Amino acid sequence: MARGKSSLWLIVLVLILVLIGAGAFYVWPHLEGEPPQIALATPLKHLGKSSSLTLKVSDQGRGLSWVRVTLVQEQRKSVLLNQTSEVLGAPLATLKLDIKPLEMGMRQGQATLVVEAGDRSWRSWMKGNMTVKEFQVMVDTTPPRLASLSQIIHINRGGAGLAVYTVNEADSQHGVRVGDLVFTGWSPWPQQPGTKLCYFAYPEDAPKDQAIELWAQDPAGNQAKLPLNVKVHWKNFRTDVINLNDAFMNKVAARFADQIPADRQTPLAKFLWINQDLRQKNNAKIHEASKPSQAYQLWQNTLERPLGARKAAFGDRREYVLDKKVVSRSVHLGQDLAHTERSPVKATASGMVRYAADMGIYGNCVILSHGQGVATLYGHLSELKVKAGDKVARGQVIGLSGMTGLALGDHLHFSVLVDGVFVQPTEWWDPHWVQDNVLLRFKEAGLPQPLPPAGK
Ligand SMILES: [Zn+2]
């Protein structure tokens, strides 16, 4: 009997141990000690009138339980977000919130954004693990102040202009807006960091009466604008008619045979792909390649006019006619200059090589940046003498003229761009234009020419 009793005890003991084990097995993960993680999707340093914030809150263990976001400034405290049910159990929550500090009674100046999160762990008597993170932010709801230092600015349709102005908040982005086009400004006077300049264009394809204004945006996202006193001189561009035939179109297509999509079968379809699709793709790439720049003016006096007789001009409208119908149109965005075959092509001013490679219809092509968004382009070259990243001096040979790309005879295609927008090249090699539209802007603002500081 004694034996039977003791074995019963043993069974009970084993059962208790199994229960404790199973309990521990079940409870143990609930006691995890991994606290939630809190991060801002993008850094937030400033709060403007309305700033959006994206929070990423995660928990590796039993998942989130709650998240609370509070904005604190001196005695003021405002709860921006208090979420329990929405995040309950989630391993990761992406929380978006709009902060309007003025509506919350906050003042200009320093404030603290407090983000707290708890998880579903049973630690700390079921309270769970908790993380608190604080972010220092600056409440700034005042837009930057703009002032123009330029008198009346004259600009030609398709031409360029220069504005000189001040922005009172140092870290603002700024420039000139022409219609929807945004041009970036620069700060080239280290002694006067609030004084800025911006080259801008009245694009050859823009409609009449575009609004032209200065713009600025501070780090808190507050925006300011100020109309510029600009007089636009409208002019009409020439129209050339180009008669197409199969022989011509086949000749052109042969040059791009390896690039034309297979579904373009007829000579016309192939020609249209080159003249429209490829042209558009090339111009977009030129826009991107010519935009990167720096604050100082690397050119002086004028841009040097390349050698050669003018063949086609900037802004020429071209109509391509087949069987008495206009089948395609294009605009010529530079100056064609023909000199002797394979004649040396020189840098029009000092600069940095941004691009030196094939560029579709422009053939072998060099793009130079001369600072402050001003760039020049040299197309149809038979040979390249520089590579991207090189520094070049005015007059340095950068290539030899040729007929690569969409060119039927040896010539140089020369373009000038302002912040990625093609402009009239002839303005830049005319000393009178430079005097009236560039040097006068510095003179009337009482500023020196924004050349690179010595040693730069
Ligand atoms: Zn051309």
TrEMBL record:
Keywords: Membrane, Signal, Transmembrane, Transmembrane helix. The chain crosses the membrane at residues 7-28. InterPro entries: Cell_wall_metabolism_enzyme, Dup_hybrid_motif, M23ase_b-sheet_dom. It holds the Pfam family Peptidase_M23. Residues 331-425 form the M23ase beta-sheet core domain. One of its GO terms (molecular function) is metalloendopeptidase activity. This is Peptidase M24.
